[in-house]
Amino acid sequence: MTTDIDRLEQPDGYDFSAITNALPPADLNAEAELIGVVLLDPDAYERIREVITASDFYDTAHQRIFRAIEQVASHGEPPNLPLVINHLDSINKLNAIGGTVKLASMVEPIVSSVNADILAKLVKEKSLRRGVIGQALAIAERAQTPTLPIDHTLEQAVKTVKDLQAETGSGIERQRNKIKRLVDRVKGILTSPWESYIKEDLLLQLARETNRPVNHLQTLYHKSLIPHTCGRLMSIRELRDKVGNRCDEWIAHGWYAAGSTTLFHAPGGTGKTTFLLDQIKELIQGKEWQGFPASGKRRVLFVQTDEPENRFLKSLSDRGYDDDEPNFRTITTFAVDHIPMLVAQCQEFKPDLIVIDSLTSASKFSTVSENDSVYARPLLELAELSNQMGCHTIVIHHTGRATGEARGTTALVNAVSQVIKLDHDPHSYDPNDLIIQSTKSRDRAPIKYRLHRDADTLRWELLDEIIADEAPD
Fold first, then answer.
1. If you ran DSSP here, which 8-state letter would residue 464 be given?
2. How far is 297 from 295, CA to CA, in rounded Å?
3. Among 61, 307, 447, 467, which residue's beta carbon has the most beta carbons within 10 A?
4. To which CATH superfamily is domain 248-470 assigned?
5. Segments in the chain below pLDDT 50
6. pLDDT score for 263
7. Taking all residues of the chain, what is their mean pLDDT, rounded to a whole number?
């Protein structure tokens, strides 16, 4: 025979058996009475919905019934007994909670809804007590895990206490604060300078602790990078004060604006890296490039992970880069998980232009699919870096063979200020004749130029601009 105790669920995955001779705090009678009150008088739900949620109930059947009440109410219907029965039946949960007899037995002894608020507070109090016990056990478990950094363990213990304190607010506000704190914990892991395998393990432990998939935690953090509030009203003067001189500042005139990002994509073998190295050579020396005027010497940080160091060094030497060039720095070991460390290095070097070559190679250790919107997270983080430092970041990527556009999720294009595409000239039989164009730009009108690459020196020459009327379809 199944008893009420047999149906008790261990909330949040905590094992209360570690507490000797003690059952978790719960008042099953109060839970049943509260549900009966709501089913008898659906208006009572409006009085308690900000105090309590289905997860505050201890009994599994009670959780399911109250979740059904929440779902019926969310559709604008009164969560009365007939509608709740219909909903549970429609999702094949009616028998699981004990059937209509169980529900009727909850409503039958109720004569008034006057005690709804008192019952809700009582159920909530028991839920909070279970939460304290469960979180204390989780803190103890983390403290006994030798692979976890002690600073992280202490930090999470403090956050846990704050989480519990915040549980005393209204239902919606509690849930909002809970999610925000969860995102902060995910951010603390993903943006830490720790080794990738430690971050992966910490993220997995957090997923287990919160009963959420790892990819869901990553998605939450990704979404948190997207502006979530409407900006304040500003006059033109206030906008100018905020932007400063960045409104018309070019890192490379006509190409790369300060405080923004570019996704630079091309098919394999077109020479996208050598094209950028030609541009950068003139930028760091403060010289014009192919008729585009210079605006002073620029500092460039080139992150090269797409080709071996010896080949990259040869490319630099072939173009006459000075070994002791003060305005050029490179990093040859990098992954998207290293962006927090990249930020620290940028604060030291203060580059005007950052180049990541390439997104694919920097993401080779990522478990996120190229077609998943979360794959664009590094671009959002780099966009934030560019905006804060007033620099420009170029992320090199590959063109999809089937589409002719940047490979992978469209979120990549949405995450940047500009998209530049380099490809072979379809009207030329010479493989060294190419066309470069901006397919998206927030900083200037679209550009489209014919280029020629010298097959021997691999140096580039800008031939002419393609006017819209003569541009091929």
1. E
2. 7
3. 61
4. P-loop containing nucleotide triphosphate hydrolases (3.40.50.300)
5. 1-12, 20, 471-473
6. 97
7. 85
